[in-house]
Design a protein that fits this description.
- The protein has a single domain, classed as Rossmann fold (3-Layer(aba) Sandwich).
- The chain is 34% helix and 23% strand.
- The protein is built from nine helices and nine strands.
- It has a nine-stranded mixed beta sheet with strand order 1-2-3-5-4-6-7-8-9, with helices on both faces.
- Helix 2 packs parallel to helix 9.
- The radius of gyration is 18 Å and the shape is globular.
Length: 280
């Protein structure tokens, strides 16, 4: 692991790191905030998955999470959203919603994407193992996950597939049903092919329909989000949870849009909510 940068902030350390990933076959960059702690103390972990076009840097620079993480003693980890580098394929038309910056947290099976676009394995397996090795202050028995937009989709699906690992799941403006929106249909077709049965494990609503359950889910969605009706479709998650008898907390926030102005407004709430469950 290479240290790209570290800086003291809120009594802790915000770092940016890189390593050679076996899952993606590329160098991957991620950020970690370690809050102040007593010597020898182990702290719980909150993963944050970012949205389309983003890297680790967006939330690191604009997410306003460090004060709350320092207050509650939470380590905050932000990975990249896709493999990058020479030889990594991108959307042939240069679109923002597929290819570089748009890994959708799946393990691609279709050429040419399958060689590098293994973001599910990277997030679920490789990066946690690296964190456990390189950051001994992390308590990997206490993990939660959150994310925004495409990353909200990632947080919901990864959390619902690994309910024994994540104490809580939250999301800002998530794509709740990729099988039923243009962003998702494009990504799932491109990365996984035409067999829609293989798509279901990457769709939060389908996972719930197929029996996945979690007791602690929090979603915030802005009513002024210009992607709400076409891409995000929050009502589908409400319906899926209601039918499954899941007591998810899904909040429509009046007047908020899709930006980091929205995310930063409620980031402290999410961290405090996760902290209670991580320390229960």
């Amino acid at each position: 692991m290479e240290i790209k940068s570290t800086v003291k902030t809120f009594g802790g350390v915000q770092g940016v790191y890189a390593h050679d990933s076996k899952a993606t076959g590329t160098e991957m960059t991620f950020s970690v905030f370690v809050p102040p702690r007593d010597k020898g103390a182990k702290l719980p972990v909150l993963w944050y998955l970012s949205g389309l076009t983003c890297t680790h840097a967006n939330v690191t620079e604009k997410g306003e999470f460090r004060r709350a993480c320092a207050e509650h003693g939470i380590i905050f980890i932000a990975p990249d959203t896709s493999p990058r580098g020479e030889g990594v394929p991108d959307d042939p038309n240069g679109a923002y919603d597929f290819g570089l910056g748009a890994g959708h947290y799946v393990n691609a099976t279709e050429a040419p994407w399958a060689e590098h676009y293994q973001m599910r394995s990277y997030i679920e397996e490789e990066l946690p193992a690296l964190i456990a090795k390189e950051f001994p202050m992390t308590d990997m028995s206490r993990q939660s996950i959150t994310g925004h937009s495409m990353g909200g989709h990632g947080a919901l699906t990864i959390g619902l597939r690994n309910t024994d690992r994540y104490k809580s799941i939250s999301a800002f403006s998530p794509i709740v049903s990729p099988m039923n929106c243009p962003w998702g249909k494009k990504a799932l077709t491109g990365y996984l092919g035409e067999d829609k049965a293989s798509w279901r494990e990457y769709d939060a609503c389908a996972l719930i329909e197929d029996g996945a359950r979690h007791d602690h889910i929090l979603v915030d969605q802005g009513t002024a989000d210009n992607f709400l009706e076409k891409e995000l479709k929050t009502e589908r998650l409400v319906t899926a949870c209601d039918k499954a008898g899941m007591n998810a907390k899904i909040r429509m926030q009046e007047g908020y849009d899709h930006s980091y102005y929205f995310i930063s407004s409620f980031m402290g709430d999410h961290i405090a909510w996760h902290a209670k469950l991580l320390k229960a």
